[in-house]
Amino acid sequence: MNDAAAPSGPSPSPTLGDAMRFAFGTLTVLPVRLRRWDRPAARGGMLCAPAAGLVIGLAAAALGTGLLLLGGGPLLAAVATAAVPAVLTRGLHLDGLADTADGLGSGKPAEDALRIMKQSDIGPFGVITLLFTLLAQVAALAQLYGRGWADGATAAVVAAVTARCALTLAARPGVPPARPEGLGAAVAGTVPLPAAATAAAVVVALSAALGSTHSGGYGALHAALAALLALAVGEAALRRCRHRFGGITGDVFGAVAETTGLAAVVVLALG
What we know:
Layout: H1 16-27, H2 39-47, H3 49-69, H4 74-88, H5 92-105, H6 110-118, H7 124-147, H8 149-170, H9 183-187, H10 193-245, H11 250-269
């Protein structure tokens, strides 16, 4: 994900509109104009991150389901579903995943690894990670669409919402920025832990509700478990990056989101 200057200075409490603009303006390419770039707005924006994920997930589910119902087949539906989040984020999360993989794989000290992550090119670790991540996403989604459009659509929404919820959790206190500037510095420590936990609980409940619509109690349990395990995988990725780089960056946010989303669709494809 691209970095920008960190907000600073005291500011009045943001409105819901400010929070939504921050979430959609930083996490999507939708034409949303940012009116505030300060820590209160960042706090609201990161709490609203799952809402941005919901819009992305619904768009991905709509395209995948439409192609499937038109006879396109599970594989084409899966490719389209995986492509929509990349388009609506201008590939920033995928770019962050690749840059983070290059930094982690470099084996260099944190300062040098962060410098590698800021370079515009993608190294071998990044290419390999992107390749297998996208292949795994498409394979899992194709299996789910093979069961029926509802399974694939549910996975698209659950993965997108859970991936952005992982960013909400990553913005809690105790997770420092790796650089004094950029998106990581803008949002680091802005979301109180109780609020982050509440957001996670809402996302798990939403996932359960989506799963129950077509598979009853088993679907609810399966989808809730997928969200919980995906958030745990995202937390593990975050901890690894904190240990390796000393904190979070915009690239780390992208890596956490992609890792979490992949974990969600894989768990939903199992069982």
